[in-house]
Amino acid sequence: MNPLYSVAEIRAIEQRAAEALPAGTLMQRAGQATANAALDMLPFSTNGARVLVLAGPGNNGGDALEAAAHLTYSGAQVDVLHFPPAGEQSAERAAAQRRAESSDAIFNDIGGSALAGTEWNLIIDGLFGIGLARPVSGALRTLVDTVNTLGCPVLALDVPSGLDADTGAVVGPDGVAIRATHTITFIGDKPGLHTCDGRDHAGQVTVAALDLEPRQFPSVRLHLNEARFFARKLKTRRQNSHKGSYGNVAVVGGARGMAGAPILAARSALHAGAGRVFAVFADDAPSYDSGQPELMCRAAAGFDLDSSVLVLGPGLGTAPQSVELLKRAVASASALVADADALNLLAADAALQAAVAQRGAGCIITPHPLEAARLLGCAITAVQADRVAAARTLAARLRATVVLKGSGTVIAAPDGDAVINTTGNPALATAGTGDVLAGLCGSLLAQGWPQWEAALAAVWLHGMAADVLVTDGVGPIGLTAGELVPAIRAAINRLVQQHGR
Ligand SMILES: NC(=O)C1=CN([C@@H]2O[C@H](COP(=O)(O)OP(=O)(O)OC[C@H]3O[C@@H](n4cnc5c(N)ncnc54)[C@H](O)[C@@H]3O)[C@@H](O)[C@H]2O)[C@@H](O)CC1
Ligand SMILES: [K+]
């Protein structure tokens, strides 16, 4: 189920496991697992392959030293850039150091020019793991900067050095972290590898459980998203069904000059399978959408907000009539997705926030980090400094399902369950993709999905559609939000073929 463990949880698991094992066992297993992963990344003939091992002062460095010794046995030429601890070191690290020193590894104080002038087949980053306590600075900062310019494969041990394993933020301010192509993470997977700066620094992540048994792992409330979490809600369509079987969605927004946003959201809702979709405009409604005449365009005045699942916010604006619409929507009995300006209006109105928290019909909110910061009354940097915590706090406060967008979108429930999404790419960093996501959430709700599974599936499908388009060369540069819509339709139909019942 792809659980994600905090540093505190990993430390507790590690401590209990270490007590039951001969001293040094876990570090030896970590070193062996690292060597195996490194061999997978080296040329088939490892003879003479150039490997640089960066070994820091703590046990992360110990793992690296273990790996260095193993790799020499395979014939690789291993240079070790060693940063011994200023004070005492753990017994297992000392043993690892002795093993590396008595192997063919070359302990070398490689200067910047030799480092940059060598064609490394692989660099192993064992500078800092979960014990990173402050920003990487001084000579080590220069080293990290140099490694990041080299363009060779980089295998980070446990976590790329400089990255916070809990949050995925580069430890700063103005910090640096290794940009690895691969990360082998020990004992259990960590949230920081998958959100915020994590995806840019960790590369491809594999987990080495170090032969610990499943019973040694506590159950946790944070996971990576996967289709298994929502697959049971994917339904094969019955022959004897009609448009009324698949629900109504009303996208409410579209103040003057912003009519495109609700149209995009409404097209998304339609292509994701809703039976009937309304585009509802705060100001004058166009008579119809010539690009998608299946949509029904309406003015908000007089529109029955109890008749459809509501997607409120795309292009809504912040004029007084938009506030009134938000109040009507929150007071309605309909399931609600709140996005964009609906969230900005909500942030400015404590009474409305209380009303959202008391809604019987629930609510999904889909803030980007700035909207989340406004809702939380904090700076955007505070949200990004711990995205999972920010999403959980908002979910608890508003009693809503929160979709905190960004690299490694976080979905959080009021009860504390949280999931980090794995699909998606920078192609989504363009106007309108949020409208498409909100429409998709609304569409799944209209088709009878529970809020939690709808949010998980919508985020996963939205990202998967972008991933498929990028594989086909449509992006990441220049992908448009509208192009996502048919790709989402393809992705959802594929999932239903695989899992539908
Ligand atoms: N103890 C064990 O049995 C195991 C340890 N493991 C490894 O051990 C790591 C954790 O080891 P540690 O707790 O020793 O922590 P680290 O090795 O991550 O780093 C701690 C050391 O770095 C120093 N330090 C922290 N931030 C610094 C900075 N910015 N600049 C300079 N020095 C800094 C600390 O003073 C300390 O000496 C894990 O990430 C993992 O790689 C795993 O192999 C699992 C088994
Ligand atoms: K590391």
What binds here, in terms of ligands, is:
ligand NAX, potassium ion
User: Largest beta sheet, briefly?
Assistant: 10 strands, mixed
CATH class category name of the largest domain: Alpha Beta
- How much strand? 5-15%
Tally of DSSP β-strands: 17
Helical coverage, percent range: 25-40%
CATH architecture of the largest domain: 3-Layer(aba) Sandwich
Q: What order do the strands of the largest sheet run in, or round the barrel if closed?
A: 8-17-16-15-14-13-12-9-10-11
> What's the N-to-C terminus distance?
21 Å
How many domains make up the coordinates? Answer: 2
Shape, principal axes of CA atoms: elongated
Which consecutive residue ranges, at least 5 long each, have pLDDT under 50?
Answer: none
The whole-angstrom Rg is 26 Å
* Annotation field: number of helices: 17
CATH topology of the largest domain: Rossmann fold
Tell me the name of the CATH homologous superfamily of the largest domain.
YjeF N-terminal domain
Structural class assignment = alpha/beta
The residue-averaged pLDDT reads: 96
